[in-house]
Amino acid sequence: MSDRVTHAKSVLTSQNIETPSWAFGNSGTRFKVFSQQGVPRDPYEKIADAATVHRFTGAAGSVALHIPWDKVEDYTRLAAYAADHGVRVGTINSNTFQDDDYMLGSVCHPDPGIRRKATDHLLECIEIMEAVGSNDLKLWFADGTNYPGQDSIAARQDRLAEVLAEVYARLGDDQRMLLEYKLFEPSFYHTDVPDWGTSYAHCVELGPKAQVVIDTGHHAPGTNIEFIVAFLLRQGKLGGFDFNSRFYADDDLMVGAADPFQLFRIMHELALRGAVGTDSGIAYMLDQCHNIEPKIPAVIRSVMNAQEATAKALLVDHDALEAAQAAGDVLGANAVLMDAYNTDVRPLLAELREEQGLATDPVAAFAASGYTAKVQAERQGGQAAGWGA
Ligand code: PSV
Ligand code: MN
Fold first, then answer.
1. CB neighbours (10 Å) of residue 333?
2. Could you tell me if the CB of 287 is within 6 A of ligand 1?
3. Full-model pTM
4. 45 CA to middle of ligand 2, Å?
């Protein structure tokens, strides 16, 4: 076995792809939510589904929660339940976008009372992090305006900076704040954190515990996301990813489905800097919704897509690439990259799974497990969890 393959296998063994609790609930577009049978009815059942993904992939050992969608009475109990099921609670995602009070924004709202309410929610998320043993607070703000002149763009930046500073001051030594950005939606004229530059500038102002999170669906078409990755990595400001794929805007489809080559290019920048395994300090998360496909196999497939892109990136011959680049060999350098991308890594991953005591085909193994029929029978009555429930 070549050194590169051995290295790839060892890095892949330590790779963790965090699954989002909300991927297991019902979701849809603003036109229709199609309900599925056996969908979790509470955060415990969502964690059970996330643990099932981990059981079949061995690569999804943490689950992200979204507050208040995953609000429970006793967070210590929830964390213990996760541990009993072989997973841990990962990122805590805040939600300052689903309350009537937030119509004109949350942390950037012109009314200090609404800003206080949003800030208190973020502080509550830090308390939850403490209770579940999570290190990462993920912030995404739906704030922005719909019409020119609606509010002062500059004043909103001041309000944002002020709230972020208060929340930052409350972070523990091992805790981080991951600031997401999004070009547009739900605001259509301007967004208060529209791009990585804005997120980066706020994170620099805040300090080392603030880092940028890249949601792969949050850019203008054609944006070179791997450039953003390379830049932020170099600055020590890349905190994590919300992986998903998009054809048009924020489609939240399975990562690697729309553009596996882009996912490979992103993973290549990370592999170049040895930033793939769990010790990289980068949170690799999925942020997806499975509206028309069965949810658990879709999440399993997404984890496998991420593993495939990672394996290909780890197979890039860095020495040959550097030599070609230094020699100004444009086609040679490109060929080194394409050779890795065009490698069928499925046998390598099947072998790795076998070595880990897993089934070589996680999707087939899940289908044969009877889990779907079991939860469909068990999860009768109650209210199926949904985006926003
Ligand atoms: C916003 O579009 C976003 O990407 C944020 O991460 C939210 O928390 C998440 O989607 C909700 O699905
Ligand atoms: Mn996201």
1. 18
2. yes
3. 0.97
4. 22
Where do we find the tokens 């999440």?
Answer: 299
Ligand 1 lined by 182 (C-beta under 6 Å): yes
What is the distance between the alpha carbons of residues 143 and 275, in angstroms, rounded to a whole number? 31
Domains and CATH numbers, the chain: 2-378 (3.20.20.150)
Q: Are 67 and 125 a contacting pair, CB within 8 Å?
A: yes
| Residues present in the chain in total | 389
**Residue pLDDT tens, the chain, 389 long:** 689 999 999 999 999 999 999 999 999 999 999 999 999 999 999 999 999 999 999 999 999 999 999 999 999 999 999 999 999 999 999 999 999 999 999 999 999 999 999 999 999 999 999 999 999 999 999 999 999 999 999 999 999 999 999 999 999 999 999 999 999 999 999 999 999 999 999 999 999 999 999 999 999 999 999 999 999 999 999 999 999 999 999 999 999 999 999 999 999 999 999 999 888 999 999 999 999 999 999 999 999 999 999 999 999 999 999 999 999 999 999 999 999 999 999 999 999 999 999 999 999 999 999 999 999 999 999 999 986 54
Which of 93, 213, 288, 291 to mutate to test ligand 1, by most ligand atoms within 8 A of the CB atom?
Answer: 93
Atom of ligand 1 nearest to the CA of 244: 4
| CA distances for 34 relative to 5, 183, 189, angstroms | 43, 27, 30
272 C-alpha vs ligand 1 centroid, how far in Å? 28
Going by the DSSP 8-state scheme, the letter that residue 33 receives in this structure is: B
143 lines ligand 1 (CB under 6 A): no
